[in-house]
Structure to design on (261 residues):
């Protein structure tokens, strides 16, 4: 009976050790092994064995991690206070360095992103912050990637998500935009007047060279006016003199008086 109990206990111990020795990690995971406190290597994916009690393992996820950087109060180079938030995308490329070189790579990357965001955006003007987001995203990514490379971290993307301006600054920008539009409209109007004057000068020169052309233009204008049928047009032909014009004027005045009565 004692032999059976000893065998059972030994069997349970062996099963427990096997359970502790066999490790399985998924495709996107890796395990960093420390043997008696010293770095032994990186295992995974799949199945592998460790020495129970002697080895300590730390499991990491190699998928892309997203950090939502909370709103940071940034004072731009032209002394404008804005609230900026961003999104950082990174992944672990060297599990060994991610565990050995930094205590908590997630927190370290997040705090580094906040500090870098304030430092970089504080060196540019507000107009560049609003108009050159793509360039700023690449610049932030390069800086973060350079600082996190010793930690075995690869920053794959940075996106400035929102830039919040004070209400007074919004009104100032709206006034500036309105002034710019008014300026462009006046320039366009003046340019149109200049082009029209040049065209009319050329037309006058052509009419001076061919006097009959101005008469044809006059007849065309009369034909266009006649389509409306609501105007009386008095024009001078080649045979009209001052007396004829006076008679027509008197007749038109008499007709107008009769209409009023």
């Amino acid at each position: 009976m004692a032999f059976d109990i000893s065998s059972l206990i030994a069997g349970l111990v062996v099963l427990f050790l096997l359970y502790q020795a066999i490790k399985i990690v998924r495709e996107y995971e890796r395990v960093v092994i420390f043997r008696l406190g010293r770095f032994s290597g990186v295992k995974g994916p799949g199945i592998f064995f460790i020495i129970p009690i002697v080895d300590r393992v730390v499991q990491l996820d190699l998928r892309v991690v997203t950090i939502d950087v909370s709103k940071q109060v940034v004072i731009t180079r032209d002394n404008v206070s804005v609230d900026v938030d961003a999104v950082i995308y990174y992944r672990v490329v060297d599990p060994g360095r991610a565990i050995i070189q930094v205590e908590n790579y997630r927190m370290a990357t997040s705090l580094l992103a906040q500090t870098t965001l304030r430092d970089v955006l504080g060196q540019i003007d507000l107009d560049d912050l609003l108009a050159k987001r793509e360039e700023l995203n690449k610049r932030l990514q390069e800086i973060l990637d350079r600082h996190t490379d010793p930690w075995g971290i690869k920053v794959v993307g940075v996106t400035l998500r929102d830039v919040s301006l004070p209400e007074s600054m919004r009104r100032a920008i709206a006034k500036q935009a309105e002034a710019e539009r008014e300026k462009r409209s006046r320039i366009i109007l003046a340019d149109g007047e200049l082009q029209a004057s040049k065209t009319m000068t050329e037309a006058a020169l052509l009419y001076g060279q061919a006097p009959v052309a101005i008469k044809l233009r006059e007849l065309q204008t009369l034909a266009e006016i006649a389509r409306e049928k609501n105007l009386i047009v008095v024009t001078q032909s080649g045979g009209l003199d001052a007396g004829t014009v006076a008679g027509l004027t008197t007749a038109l005045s008499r007709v107008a008086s009769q209409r009023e009565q």
User: Anything to note?
Assistant: The chain has four domains: 2-61, 65-165, 175-209, 211-252. The radius of gyration is 43 Å.
